[in-house]
Amino acid sequence: RPAHRSHAERVAEVCAASQRPEERPNMHQKLLKVLDRRFKSPVRAWPTVLDPKAKGKVTRDQFLLSCSVAGFTGSSTALANDLKLNASSSVRLRDIAPEAIKEVTGFKIGALEQLKDKHGPIIKQTEKTRRLTEEQFKEMCKEARFRGSPQRLFEHLSLPGHDKLSTKTLRVLNELQSDEKALVATLRAQAEGKKAAKEKKRDARAVPTNQDCGEQAQKIAAGRAKRATNAEAAQIIKDFQRHLCRKFGGLGRAWQLAFDADVDGELDEEAFFQ
Fold first, then answer.
1. Quick one: angle between helices 150-157 and 167-175, nearest 10?
2. Does residue 167 contact residue 125 with C-beta atoms inside 8 Å?
């Protein structure tokens, strides 16, 4: 077992085993409802919690444990039986969400190439990646005469945590022949992007190394020395101005009597110090 079972779970499994097949609740459908409720789509749940390392497949035990993390409270044994998983089985996205893959396939065949905006066909916009809102995507699907559910497609393909659909996702979906591989590749790219963003944020908060601290200390010391020099120079000027005011009664009189007696309007450095 991937996780410790409570007494209630063991009792539920015993009861489920004693029921006739037609009387047992379908754990696969229960799992899909949980994933839809928490993540809006099993496709979005796959990279978020079921396959966070983006390997494309997970072991049976890893899958059952991840289902518990995702909020599934049903019988793990019954779920494995519904999905026909044995101890050595691997689980892929198509095993838990074949309907989602079918919906994506219908969209790819029926509307993806016709999807466009004021910049032209989406799949040909390779120079710049944009993020579409749900309303923008629905309007594009309407113009492309897509007969499926744009809302469901948006839930499958949009970026987890952003509620935006990247145009890069649509390009990847169009380029790969296998729809499942296209979905997995897209999910992997999203997971890697999310991981890179986390690492960047973590590095920004990281404690600096000794070398970084030394360089920062030097910059701080240099800044302090510069400010001290400027402050000293400013104080010297103020003291000089006070001296002139005391002796001549003002800076204007000091200039006329002591510095510019010939009324030239200017004074060179040598004459000033003399």
1. 90
2. yes
Report the SS3 class of residue 239: helix
Tokens of 155: 């839930």
CA–CA distances in Å: residue 120 to residues 47, 186, 202: 30, 22, 38
What is the distance between the alpha carbons of residues 78 and 14, in angstroms, rounded to a whole number?
A: 10
What is the Cα–Cα distance from 20 to 24, expressed in whole angstroms?
7
Show the tokens assigned to 74. 């049903």
Q: Residue 183: which of 263, 248, 125, 103 has the closest Cα?
A: 103
Residues 6+ apart with CB under 8 A from 137: 150, 153, 154, 165
Residue 43's nearest CA partner among 189, 187, 193 is 187
Q: What is the mean pLDDT of each run of 10 residues along the chain (274 residues)?
A: 57 58 77 92 88 87 93 93 93 92 88 88 86 92 92 85 82 74 68 70 71 79 89 88 86 80 76 77
Give dist(CA 193, CA 73) in Å, integer: 31
**Helices 98-110 and 179-205, packing angle to 10 deg:** 100
Give the pair of three-digit tokens for residue 213. Answer: 């601290």
Query: Exposed/middle/buried for 89, CB within 10 Å: 0-12, 13-18, 19+?
Result: middle
Residues 187, 56: Cα–Cα separation, whole Å = 9
pTM over 0.85: no
Contact 132, 164 (CB under 8 A): yes
- Dihedral sign from CA coordinates of 136, 137, 140, 142: negative
